[in-house]
Structure formats: C-alpha cells, structure tokens
Design goal:
The complex is a heterodimer. Chain A is mostly helical. Chain A has 3 helices and 2 strands; from the N terminus they run αααββ. In chain A, α1 crosses α2. In chain B, strands 4-6-5-10-11-9-7-8 form an 8-stranded mixed beta sheet. In chain B, strands 1-3-2 form a 3-stranded mixed beta sheet, sandwiched between helices. In chain B, α9 (302-317) crosses α12 (368-391).
Chain lengths: 95, 486
C-alpha cells in the first residue's frame, strides 16, 4: 500500500491538519514506509479471533447520577484563547 | 547528597542531618549548574518546591511523616499540575496552565514529596529519542552526543545526572523502559489500570500507563507504591487493593521460573547487548532462578500492531485540540475549519502529525477492517501468547529492553520506521497490558544497557523482588556518569 501526495492531502483534510506544501512529499514517503511495515499484519491468520480493544476484561463502571464537580467555568475559560461573556469565540460559522 | 537512595535520604531527614529545604536547595543548585547542557527540565518550580519542602519539614518535626515526605522528585510534563505549565513537549500546549492536578500528582504531593519541576519529553510522548520535543532534545548524561531514549527522556536524564532522586514517567510502547535502559536506570511500567491516568495527557488510552524511573528497584518500588491505587476519576482504573511492593523485596528468588522467549533472542540485538543480557541470566541462575526457553510466536507482529492501534487512538485523542477551548490558536483564521486546520498544523510537530494521519487513515472508511480490526485481532493473539506462557508455570519473562545502546542524535530522525523498531522488545507488554520493567545489566563501550522483566497482571511485587535481589548481587545500577558523580 502506498500513499500518494493527493491521498496525504485528503487524510490531512480529514484530520483537520493544514500541511505546508513542502511537507506533503516527505509525508507521503514516510507514511508509505509505515504502512508498508504495518502490512505484515495482513498475513496473520486471525480467523475466529475476537478483536481486543482493551487489555482488561472489565465493563464500564457506573456511578450514581449526582453532581460531583463544582462549577469552574471561569478557571477553564481563563486558559481559552478567546472568550466573551462566558462563551468561547470562533470565527463566524453562519453567514 | 545527590547519590543517596530514597531510604538514605529519608533517614537523613528523620535524623535531622539535613532538612527537606536544604535537600531541595541542593537539587535546585545542581539543576542550575548542570541542566543547561542536558535540557531535562522544561520548567523548574523552585518556589513551589521550597514551599512543599517547608511543609514537609514541619510534618517531619511533628512526627507526621511517611517515607517519601520531604523527598524531591521530577514530574514528567505529561501530568497536569495546577497553576504550572503542562506542555507535554508540544507547542500546542506551550501556554497551557493546567487548571487541575493529575491524580498521581495529588498522591505524591499528599505523600509529602517535593516537585522540583516538569521534565522534558517527546511531543505528546511520541518518540524514542526525545528529539521530537518542542523544547529541544535532551542529552544523555552518559554521552551528550547521544539521545537519552524516549519518550521519557527528560525523566531519565534528570535522574541519571542526579538532578532529582526519582522521576515519574509514562509508557505507551516502551517510553519508561527503553530510556531507562539507555541511561543505566531502573524503570517500571505497572499493569494497565494500576496507576490512575486522570490528568495524564492521553496519547493511546488503551496502552498508556504511568510509572517510575529510579536508580534502584527499591527506590522505584517505594514511589510506585504511593502512585498506585484505584481512582474513580479514571474509568479504566482497577478496583483492587494495592500489593505491598516494598516489604517483600528481601525475599529469596530461589526456585522461580523465568521464561526466555526465543523470539527475543533471535537476530536484532547488538552483540554487546546480548552479552550483557546473557551475563544477567547467569547471575540470576546463581541466585537460584530456573530458566526455560519459551515461545511468544506472535511477538514479531507487535510493532506493526502497535503502529495501527496507537496512532488510531492518538488521532482520536488529539482531536480535542481545536484552537478553541485551550492550546494553540492560529491567528486571523477566516472560518472555523481554517481555525482548526491552521491551529493543528502550527501546533503539532511532524511526528505527531504523521501519527495523526496514520491513525486517521487506518480508521477511515474502506480501511478500517483491513487495518484497525485486523490489528485488534493480532493484539489478542499477542495477549494469548503471554497468557499461555504464564499458565504454563512461567513466573516472569526476561529479554532485552533495547536492541542497542543509546544512538547519536539525528541517526534515525528521517526514518520513522527505523525509529519505531527501537521499541521492538517493549511494545508487547503494552498491547497485553502486563507489567514490565527495565534494569541495568552493564556497559558496552562505556554506554549503559539494560534487560527487561515482564510479568503476569499485577505481579509488580514479584518483579521488583527479582530486580532488587539482582541489584544486591550486582553493582551496575550504582555506576554514575563521571561528570555527574561528584
């Protein structure tokens, strides 16, 4: 499996990454190398093997539905790049 | 003072030979003198440290102190620390002042430990050489032209140069063990779920685990003991009492059976490293350990499995960095999409971008089954290999930690696959979730090397016992790089 520069641009778009044009070629080469190494997996016989998402056999723990956190909006907004009136600011979304 | 063990430091504090303030000042002075050339600390928190030291001295005077009270440590900069920048080696978080403490920070603070500062690391813990840090590479105190390993490069370099007695670290694919091996330290990654991940910036959530790097198994056991335990704030934390890791260190290890996976001793290890690992096996044999060859037939698939699973989880975890709520924000973006793309394009370095793209690719429509699902199935096969070995009467598994001694800066930086193969012996333990550690076993041309122990789930106490007994019979771990010895 090899990745073309065009595919790299597409994946970068999906990942919301702006790449410099000069990065695209080296990334295509390096990602192709990595996928080449990863391709060894396709030879493994995994018929009947259940996928393992997690090392521990555990179920999601539940907790009582009670408030456990204090309101710390000001603390959390203090580290945001841009806020106003308790809201996070982003560029205009709706024209 | 900087060569004393934790137990010796604790005794010194108890017997009033020095105060925690004096001890802390001595370490701050060493950081000031030596770290310019090593770059192990990204933030030194002198004021916070002296305040903690004074509080520790008060506790000691009041007779309300534990073993760790007043002992300094360094925290890997992946753990959130209230009011202190937590940058995770990334420009993305260069201005991020954490609004809360990681659970392990809380626990070690509560034990009375004194945080000297935050330690350098590969960006988002992605790397095996500490060359991907936004804050620059860390030098190996044993040879400053060489890497300290990664991603916990700052943690090991600081401990190896005596700039803190012990440090926290994290291990997603070998990030505690490989750097420990390259700097003559003892590093342990406990069982997945043993130490809380709350407040530890996520890389690959099903693999990430916090641990310790120290100058001996005894020091490591004492700090790991204080870090371990159930935490309701981490949904994968294990609800199970913590074993006593310290009091059993002196037990005899006679009659234990350690497995030697033949796949780990095939080609790939440098001859010098092989010789040192074989000497370690001979030493343990003299201590009464029985060795048996075993097979972990799927272990050659560990690296490819990891480089699907870890980037997939990373691409998902790192989606949170959007330039909106915290972290780097690009200037002057005209649309929301442009804001996301440019903030992430500017904020993440090349290795992080590569892994995000690999992860995005293997999770994308049409490739998910071939890559991600297949990798999860192979992960099960790797896990089953270990399960079989432990069910077959194997108490622990021994192998090399790294293929070679520390390499030179730049040697692997343009070839990601060559860099990834550094973790060939360490990744399987993360995929299976089992505990593993590395400890020093001698030198090759003056550079340290280590061997690895892996154990069944929650066998940290047994592993540390074997490591401690080995360290009673050897003195490799007591060697210092000349420049930092006195």
């Amino acid at each position: 499996m090899s990745l073309s520069p065009e595919q790299v641009r597409q994946v970068a778009h999906l990942a919301r990454l702006q790449l410099n044009p000069e990065q695209v070629e080296p990334y295509a080469r390096q990602l192709t190398d990595i996928l080449g190494m990863v391709d060894r997996l396709s030879a493994a016989d995994t018929a009947g093997v259940s996928p393992m998402a997690h090392p521990l056999d555990m179920v999601q723990r539940l907790r009582p539905d009670v408030i456990s956190e204090a309101d710390r909006r000001d603390d959390y907004q203090a580290i945001a790049p841009e806020t106003q009136d308790g809201l996070y600011l982003v560029p205009k979304v709706i024209e | 003072m900087h060569k004393l063990s934790i137990a010796e430091l604790a005794a010194g504090l108890r017997e009033k030979r020095f105060s925690s303030r004096e001890l802390t000042q001595a370490y701050l002075k060493r950081i000031d003198s030596f770290d310019g050339a090593i770059n192990s600390y990204v933030t030194v928190t002198a004021e916070r440290a002296l305040k903690q030291a004074d509080a520790a001295d008060a506790r000691i005077a009041a007779g309300d102190a534990g073993l760790l009270t007043g002992i300094p440590l360094g925290q890997k900069d992946i753990f959130c620390t209230t009011g202190v920048r937590t940058a995770c080696g990334s420009q993305m978080l260069d201005k991020f002042i954490a609004p809360y403490d990681a659970t392990i920070v809380e626990k070690l603070d509560a034990a009375g430990m004194v945080m000297l500062g935050k330690l350098n690391m590969d960006e988002f813990a992605m790397g095996s050489s500490n060359e991907t840090s936004f804050y620059g590479p860390v030098s190996n105190p044993w040879d400053k032209t060489r890497v300290p390993g990664g991603s916990s490069g700052g943690s090991v370099a600081a401990v190896a140069a005596g700039l803190c007695p012990v440090a926290t670290a994290t291990d997603t694919g070998g990030s505690i063990r490989q750097p420990a091996a390259l700097t003559n330290l003892t590093g342990i990654k406990p069982t997945y779920g043993r130490v809380s991940r709350y407040g530890m910036i996520a890389f690959a959530s099903s693999l990430d685990q916090a641990g310790v790097v120290a100058r001996s198994a005894e020091d490591a056991a004492q700090v790991l003991q204080a870090m371990s335990g159930f935490d309701a704030k981490d949904s994968t934390s294990v609800e199970r009492p913590v074993d006593d890791l310290v009091s059993g260190l002196g037990q005899s290890i006679k009659g234990l059976t350690i497995g030697l996976p033949k796949e780990y001793f095939a080609d790939g290890m440098a001859p010098g490293v092989r010789a040192r690992v074989e000497e370690a096996i001979a030493t343990l044999t003299r201590l009464g350990v029985n060795f048996r060859e075993i097979s972990l037939p799927n272990s050659p698939l560990s690296v490819p499995t990891y480089y699907v699973v870890a980037p997939a989880e990373a691409s998902s975890n790192l989606a949170r960095f959007d330039g909106v709520r915290y972290g780097h924000r690009a200037e002057g973006a005209k649309s929301l999409e442009e804001l996301y793309k440019r903030s992430r394009g500017e904020g993440f370095g090349a290795e992080v971008q590569r892994r995000i793209m690999i992860g995005t690719y293997v999770l994308s429509h049409g490739y998910y089954d071939a890559y991600y699902l297949q990798a999860q199935k192979v992960r099960r096969l790797i896990y089953d290999d270990f399960k079989r070995a432990f069910a077959d009467g194997i108490d622990l598994i021994l192998g090399p930690t790294a293929t070679d001694v520390a390499f030179k800066f730049g040697q692997n930086s343009d070839d990601p696959v060559a860099m990834y193969l550094n973790d060939i012996y360490t990744i399987a333990a993360n995929l299976a979730g089992i505990p593993a550690m590395s400890l020093p076993c001698g030198f090759v041309d003056g550079l340290p090397t280590g061997f690895q122990l892996m154990g069944n789930f929650f066998s940290e106490a047994r592993m540390l016992n074997v490591a401690h007994q080995y360290q009673q019979a050897t003195d490799f771990h007591t060697q210092w790089p000349t420049e930092y010895a006195s």
